[in-house]
Specification:
Blueprint (H helix, E strand, L loop, with lengths): L6 E2 L11 E5 L5 H10 L3 E5 L3 H9 L3 E2 L3 H4 L5 E4 L4 H10 L2 H4 L5 E4 L5 H12 L4 E4 L2 E2 L1 H7 L2 E6 L2 H12 L2 E8 L3 H29 L4 H8 L7 H5 L22 H18 L4 H15 L11 H4 L12
Parallel strand pairs: 2-3, 2-5, 3-4, 5-6, 6-7, 9-10
Antiparallel strand pairs: 1-10, 8-9
């Protein structure tokens, strides 16, 4: 039975408590999150396979190590922010990092993986006497940079209590979704809705433009009407009105097409097991695959608009 959902407001981080944190995964999301923990006074040691990512971490004041096992030595907490469940498993269980961490270390996985993988990894962590929470996030790169992320957490209430000072340094909302794996389930459902909201926003944006309605007018009207969504207000897929949106950076530096397609795959797999008709999710997943086939997998997923406006029509045989 899932626990009742609760939310903790931002700003209640305990003062004067510093812990050693091994941070694994210094990408677009991981690096700013790790940097916030460093700024909050924690001893953060980051790890990433990319030399560029390690250099960027150093420039942000986060010291790095060449190997996870080195970074995790004696750590009070180990945090992973990685693309796939297999990466999390390797980073924690096969690298030696988990065994190197403190005997009562708290392991936080902020990646987006399947709930089954979260439960499997959580059980392996618990078998060593350490604690585990799956804590995927929502808010995108802007939320990571501004420490306004939302955390969806699965695991024991007591372990979440221990993790709150760390989570509050990186986000503004913390939801306890239930037992281990529940955080991933909540994130999966959220991303399903985000993907479909983005597809509808892209279609509306292109149609509005061709009808002579400006992007700002669409946002102003739909933003206070029944067409409102986070995608509309924060990620509008046409350059101009939302300065922080990836559309103003040629769709770079956001939540990639490839990662969103991976997340929708998790949702589709879960839906198949539970007998849920997810036709709309499947269609958006197909469109993301078309973008990947067109060489656009590293772009932000709001580049779905390229299929709507015909820019990437070759990837779908000229149909839209």
């Amino acid at each position: 039975m899932a626990a009742a959902v609760t939310v903790t407001p931002h700003g209640t981080r305990q003062k004067g408590t510093s812990v050693k944190i091994c941070w694994i995964g210094l990408g677009n999301m991981g690096l700013p999150m790790a940097a916030h923990l460093h700024t909050a006074g924690h001893d953060v040691v980051g790890v990433d396979l990319s030399a560029d990512a390690r250099d960027a971490a150093g420039a942000a004041g986060v010291r790095t190590a060449d190997a996870a096992v080195t970074a995790a030595a004696g750590a009070d907490a180990v945090v992973t922010m990685l693309p796939k469940g297999a990466h999390v498993r390797t980073a924690l269980l096969e690298s030696g990092a988990l065994d190197a961490a403190g005997d009562n270390a708290l392991v936080l996985d902020c990646s987006t993986i399947s709930c089954a993988e979260a439960r499997e990894i959580g059980a392996a962590v618990a078998a060593t006497g350490r604690r585990f929470l799956d804590a995927p996030v929502s808010g995108g790169t802007a939320g990571a940079q501004n420490a306004t992320l939302t955390f969806m957490v699965g695991g024991a209430t007591a372990d979440l209590g221990a993790a709150r000072p760390l989570l509050e340094a990186m986000g503004t909302r913390i939801f306890h979704a239930g037992e281990t794996g529940a955080g991933q389930s909540a994130k999966m459902v959220n991303n399903m809705m985000l993907a479909m909201n983005m597809q509808s926003t892209c279609e509306a944006a292109v149609l509005a433009e061709r009808l002579g309605i400006t992007p700002q007018t669409v946002i102003d009207i739909a933003g206070v009407s029944t067409g409102d969504s986070w995608a509309l207000r924060n990620y509008y897929p046409v350059a101009g009105p939302v300065t922080s949106a990836p559309s103003n950076r040629d769709f770079t530096g956001g939540f990639s097409v490839a990662l969103m397609r991976k997340d929708l795959g998790l949702a589709l797999d879960a839906a198949a097991v539970h007998g849920v008709d997810t036709a709309a999710t499947a269609e958006v997943a197909r469109r993301l695959e078309n973008l990947i086939a067109d060489g656009r997998g590293s772009l932000d997923f709001s580049s779905l608009i390229h299929l709507v406006d015909g820019t990437a029509a070759a990837a779908i045989g000229g149909t839209r």
